[in-house]
Amino acid sequence: MTSILEIKDLVKRYDGGFEALKGVSLNIEAGEILALLGPNGAGKTTLISTVCGITTATSGSVSVDGNDINDNFRAARTIIGLVPQEVNLEPFETVLNTVTFSRGLFGKRRDPAYIEKILRQLSLWDKKDNAIRTLSGGMKRRVLIAKALSHEPKVLFLDEPTAGVDVELRKDMWDIVADLKASGVTIILTTHYIEEAEAIADRVGVINQGELLLIEEKTALMKRLGQKQLNVELQEPISEIPAGLASYDLVLGEDGRTLTYSYDTKADRTGITSLLGDIAAAGLTLRDLQTEQSSLEDIFVGLVHKEDAA
After folding, report:
1. From the Swiss-Prot or TrEMBL record, what is one GO molecular function term (predicted)?
2. Which CATH class, in words, describes the domain spanning 227-293?
3. Each residue of 79-130: pLDDT tens digit?
4. CATH 3.30.70.1560 domain position(s) in the chain
5. Cβ burial, residue 13 (10 Å; 0-12/13-18/19+)
6. Is 0.70 topped by the overall pTM?
7. Which CATH class is domain 3-223?
């Protein structure tokens, strides 16, 4: 696939010496959904602001569809749509006028049919004549997306788009993002919600303290870094793990009925067969077996904690 966004050695250093970005390099493919995960202050918003020209980089380069963000700013910025974290809309203006005006800011000719298409896609058409102040928080966020799409960008940045949105509206937003991808829009999403990355992203990047710790295809990442757990449910509770099972680093559940065994899916041997044999040798009777795959949240937390401890 072709890279539509190329970020190379991007550094953002403030006057006091604080480095918000420490040489971030990243290529984003056309048509993909990339989720950037990271705690508060990790550098996610700074990265987006720099790519969009809101913040000036100290060094490094950004190219959007072949246009350098510094040398050819207007062309590069026209390709980008940005949905910011903050809901900052004119409260007394109508939805239709708000979105139409945003299109004009990018020098695009009036296209009522296209604006209608966007508003219908975002379930806003029936509210086109409503003042912004009358809308719910979720609908205001939809207006922000409509504004960002009004000039037909190829790349859309969503900076914490579902922050403060209830679960139902959050799922609606995921559907919207999937529809946008289907229409050919490349999407870069920053989020605190791990389930968003698991639900909709093609690739996942983890950023912390201004550094990109990794970026990888989501399924491959979970397969490479994830572990599985075998939960062994016993017929009768026990008060402690038998000495014959000490080498397996088992965790005994609070109810005394569950033994949890963690193993590496990449290893030549999982140790499960010998474990089950030793459980039987210890005089324990099995009631049930279940396996669980580590979630993306487990992986993310482990990476960030490992970086912080370094």
Report:
1. ATP binding
2. alpha beta
3. 999 999 888 899 999 999 999 999 999 999 999 999 999 999 888 999 999 9
4. 227-293
5. middle
6. yes
7. alpha beta
d(CA 147, CA 96): 10
CA distance between the termini of the chain: 35
DSSP letter assigned to residue 130: S
Query: Among residues 295, 300, 32, 76, which one has the least CA distance to residue 177?
Result: 32
Give the pLDDT confidence of 279-301 residue by residue, as tens digits: 999 999 999 999 887 666 677 76
Pairing of strands 211-217, 251-252: unpaired
4-8, 219-223, 227-231, 302-306 — most confident range? 4-8
Task: With beta carbons less than 8 A apart as the criterion, state whether 39 and 49 touch.
Answer: no
What single DSSP character describes residue 134?
A: G
Total residues found in the chain within this entry: 310
User: Using the 8-state DSSP alphabet, how is residue 122 labeled?
Assistant: T
